[in-house]
Design a protein that fits this description.
The structure holds two protein chains of two kinds. Chain A is α+β, with helices and mostly antiparallel strands. Chain A is 35% helix and 17% strand. Chain A is globular. Chain B folds into two domains: 172 residues, 3-Layer(aba) Sandwich (Rossmann fold), CATH 3.40.50; 231 residues, NAD(P)-binding Rossmann-like Domain (Rossmann fold), CATH 3.40.50. A seven-stranded parallel β-sheet of chain B has the order 3-2-1-4-5-6-7, sandwiched between helices. In chain B, strands 10-9-8-11-12-13-14 form a seven-stranded parallel β-sheet, sandwiched between helices. The longest helix of chain B has 24 residues. The chains are: A alpha+beta, B alpha/beta. Chains A and B meet through helix 6 and helix 12 of A and helix 4 and strand 3 of B.
């Protein structure tokens, strides 16, 4: 076993523009999008024919046939077929978790180079056959005689033609993620206006990131789409104020504007040891310094479903002897504007920090000008598995531009009451 | 004693009619039942910037296991966290319309000048209509006398007018009080806060309460039986308000020594017997009464903890028609006897440590009443006595206070002419008469070993009567 730990470097990443559900990528599969993204990464870093340590990627909505999708993407790419691969799945935390997994392997010397990626399509969604029909067919399959098979098939009924659609609901509460976020918004007294302001900032920052060229080497066109389809550079609080609430009832504060839309897309990030990067003459943008996951009990203790990052971050801070204010960039995934605001308020709240997080005092507030400086999921969209890669690649570049000593915090909430967080530092 | 009007307006049809023609609509006030929580619903705690009481209030709210909500402001959230309360967040702008509170508590002690009074408005404006039936609005401030700067004293005094108006505005049996907490008295607020948050203070509203520092700790009190192991003498205990006082003090754990005149001995035995107390039958106006009382208490109980001067009579006549017997009797029973008993008990050191003297005054003593020159003089005298003796008894770690009941439903009021009775019942913020137990609960609050910081005060148990306000 290798006793020494190396720094896991982020060399850069790329993604395809994110599309809205049933938009330009309506007919693109996860494999199409992930392969195209991998190809773009190969071009960006001249990885053609290269045998990498491994490729790790995943998505949330997958067909059952895609049990080995990442490996298939590798085989469909210009990477050396000897590059191993595996799929990861941790709801919306998938992309960041993939990066953490390969970073840890690099740190331990188990691999020298790796790609972490993620994808999701809500358009080309897996539709399963009706559960009753499935049971009938499996029963017929189990029967040993023709008579037995025919007897089993007599259980076929017309209503079994109705397929099983993927549901955006928590299995143990039956509530959609938006409904959970609406509960959190009420608990924390989040106003519509605050949410809309955060949403406008997200669009404004993403638009600026395109306009200034920041995203030029981070986004590659796909199927005719050059920018994220959801981006509304002219978004304003006045315009958002006109939208009707979609979660939390008639008087709810959450709208289609301040919640992320269902979207399609993929992303990939190249990570390596410093030696590998040097040998390939690729500059290091940033390091993944540390990572922490956490989970809340949204089932029994009725904790906010998307509040798990609030638990994870203090652990990261303590382990790295940092305060919440010690970061130049905060990448807080915007599943919903309300959820970002709840997270920030929780960290500012002496009660929450002491009673829930077991801290002596509140973590305090952050400089909002450092939050999601190049746009967030509200503007870009949120293909579940692809968001982590979008954030890691963007933050690595931002840190590289900011220069040595700069530091960034990533916080991603996920279904199931999960949270995935990480610290990155500039090279 | 039944209030038929109140019953009528609380029928479905009565509600509609009274609302349509704008009649007062008194609700049935929630009253305390042993074992029930201090507050039956959520409490919203707020604080003006720079206040010094939120922490002490939060501790009490924690002790009573209240469901606490606070605005998302650092000071008050820190106070809640320090008290170990997992307070929920309140934001008026985002709150559901149907969210209501059993109590609103605001620490206004930080208000340093009249411009900062805006914070009181900001806290109560969006919340005052969210107060539940028999809800509570409590403001805590700094006594103007304790303020070093004129502007601060001015603003703190302004709270009085605010709260008195609030008491008249809140509906459905809700009440509002101002509690001035002196410097270094922050640790003395629990008994008072518990009382004014709970249904025990059902018939008190628009009052200003002062809490001062006390050398005695208010910790480690069994709030279910705060008077356990204490001896309480109640004069005039055979019936009416006195009987209610005896019952409530016994409920709170006290051994009650019920005192009344020989003519009421049977009733006295009946009242006190059921409470496991003792009886003392004598006429307090007898020359040797104070000495006999003192001797009895010393010999049988080693002293006394609480003395409630409840015995009182009326001999109503306009002054021109009033006989000298009528004058003398009222003065002798209602005030002179109290003075003589106090002097004897204090002189012979009959009081145990942390003892209490509690007198029953009357609204007549504050406002005056035609036909009651003798009675009003005696009851105003009680107030004077309380004020005059507070400093002296305070030095001995005792307190002296008085309650001034307004219209309380008793046999006496039941015998009033209907017009007088109805006027008395309705002319207050709660639009109804109080019950003897309401007076008794106020006395039990004074009697509590946790009320050592409350000295020399008079609280009106009158539903915020329009009279004498």
């Amino acid at each position: 076993m290798n006793a020494s730990v190396r720094r896991a470097a982020v060399l850069g990443g790329i993604r395809i523009p994110f599309a809205r559900q049933n938009g330009p990528y309506a007919r693109a599969s996860n494999q199409d999008m992930m392969t195209a993204t991998l190809e773009a990464l190969i071009s960006k870093f001249s990885l053609e024919g290269e045998t990498l340590g491994e490729v790790s990627a995943g998505g949330v909505l997958k067909h059952s046939r895609d049990f080995n999708l990442t490996r298939e993407c590798v085989l469909g790419s210009r990477l050396n077929p000897h590059t191993p691969a595996y799929d990861v799945q941790q709801a919306c935390g998938t992309g960041l978790e993939a990066a953490i997994l390969v970073a840890n392997k690099i740190a331990l010397g188990q691999v020298d180079s790796a790609v972490a990626g993620g994808f999701d399509t809500t358009s080309d969604a897996p539709i399963a056959i009706n559960e009753d029909l499935r049971q009938v067919l499996l029963g017929a399959n189990r029967a040993r005689s023709t008579t037995g098979r025919l007897t089993a098939l007599t259980k076929l009924r017309p209503q079994q033609i109705v397929p099983a659609l993927p549901r955006n609901a928590e299995p143990r509460t039956g509530l959609s993620m938006g409904e959970h976020a609406a509960i959190m918004a009420t608990e924390w007294g989040i106003t519509r206006e605050e949410q809309d302001e955060l949403t406008v900032a997200s669009h404004r920052n993403l638009a600026a990131a395109y306009d200034t060229g920041f995203l030029d080497d981070l986004v590659t066109p796909f199927l005719g789409l050059e920018r994220d389809q959801n981006l509304r550079p002219d978004s304003s609080v006045e315009k958002l104020a006109k939208l009707k609430p979609v979660f939390g009832g008639e008087n709810g504060t959450m709208t289609a504007g301040n919640s992320t839309p269902l979207s399609d897309g993929a992303s990939a990030v190249l990570l390596a040891s410093e030696e590998w990067a040097n040998a390939h003459e690729l500059p290091v943008q940033a390091y993944i310094t540390d990572a922490q996951t956490a989970a809340v009990d949204h089932v029994h203790a009725r904790e906010g479903l998307l509040m798990a990052p609030t638990y994870a971050v203090p652990k990261l801070l303590e382990r790295n002897k940092l305060t919440l204010q010690d970061f130049d960039f905060y990448e807080i995934h915007e599943a919903f504007a309300a959820q970002v605001l709840c997270t920030l308020k929780a960290w500012e709240d002496p009660v929450y920090c002491r009673e829930r997080l077991g801290l002596d005092k509140a973590l305090g507030s952050i400089d909002r000008d450092r939050l999601n400086t190049h746009g967030g999921s509200l503007a870009a969209g949120h293909p579940f598995g692809a968001t982590g890669g979008r954030i890691v690649a963007g933050l690595a570049k931002a840190l590289a531009e900011k220069g040595s000593g700069s530091r960034g915090l990533i916080s991603i909430c996920a279904a199931g009451g999960l949270g995935v967080t990480a610290i990155m530092e500039a090279a | 004693m039944s209030d038929r009007y109140q019953q009528l307006v609380n029928t479905p049809i009565g509600k509609i009619v009274s609302k349509q023609i704008g009649l007062p609509s008194p609700v049935k006030l929630e009253r305390y039942e042993p074992g029930q929580p201090v507050v039956s619903g959520p409490v919203l705690l707020g604080a003006a910037k720079g206040g010094r009481l939120a922490g002490a209030v939060a501790k009490v709210l924690k002790a009573i296991d209240a469901e606490v909500h606070t605005p998302l402001e650092q000071d008050v959230r820190t106070a809640a966290a320090d008290a170990g309360i997992e307070a929920r967040v309140w934001n008026a702008e985002a709150a559901p319309e149907d969210e209501t509170f059993q109590a609103l508590v605001f620490d206004a002690s930080g208000i340093a000048d009249s411009t900062q009074l805006h914070e009181v408005w900001a806290f109560l404006h969006p919340t005052i209509r969210r107060v539940r039936r028999s809800g509570r609005v409590l403001l805590l401030g700094t006594p103007p006398d304790d303020c070093s700067k004129p502007r601060q004293a001015t603003a703190q005094q302004a709270l009085e007018g605010f709260v008195r108006s609030m008491g008249k505005e809140v509906r459905r049996g809700a009440t509002a009080q101002l509690i001035y907490v002196g410097r270094k008295a922050e640790d003395q607020i629990e008994s008072t806060l518990r009382f004014y948050l709970s249904p025990k203070s059902a018939y008190i509203s628009g009052q200003v309460v002062r809490i001062g520092a006390s050398a005695l700790s208010a910790d480690r009190i069994d709030w279910e039986r705060p008077l356990a192991g204490k001896y309480a003498l109640v004069t005039g205990a055979a019936r009416g308000i006195g009987r209610a006082i005896a019952k409530v003090l016994a409920r709170d754990g006290a051994h009650v020594i019920g005192l009344d005149v020989p003519a009421l001995e049977n009733e006295l035995e009946e009242t006190i017997g059921g409470l496991g107390g003792s009886t003392l039958v004598l006429d307090i106006t007898d020359d040797d009464a104070p000495a006999r009382i003192a001797t009895y208490l010393l010999e049988n109980h080693g002293g006394v903890d609480v003395v409630v001067h409840n015995a009182g009579v009326t001999r109503d006549k306009t002054l021109g028609r009033m006989s000298d017997e009528q004058w003398d009797k009222v003065i002798a029973i209602n005030i002179t006897a109290q003075e003589r008993i106090n002097e004897e008990l204090l002189g012979r050191e009959v009081f145990h440590e942390n003892g209490r003297i509690i007198s029953v005054s009357s609204m007549s003593g504050i406002a005056g009443n035609a036909g009651q020159t003798n009675y009003a003089a005696s009851k105003a005298g009680v107030i004077g006595m309380v004020h005059a003796m507070a400093r002296e008894v305070g030095k001995k770690q005792l307190t002296i206070n008085a309650v001034a009941p307004g219209f309380i439903e008793t046999q006496m009021t039941a015998a009033m002419p209907i017009a007088t009775r109805e006027a008395g019942r309705r002319m207050n913020s709660l639009a109804q008469g109080g019950l003897p137990v309401d007076v008794a609960e106020a006395i039990a609050w004074y009697a509590s070993p946790g009320s050592g910081g409350v000295n020399g005060t008079v609280v009106r148990v009158c539903g915020q009567s329009l009279v004498g306000a």
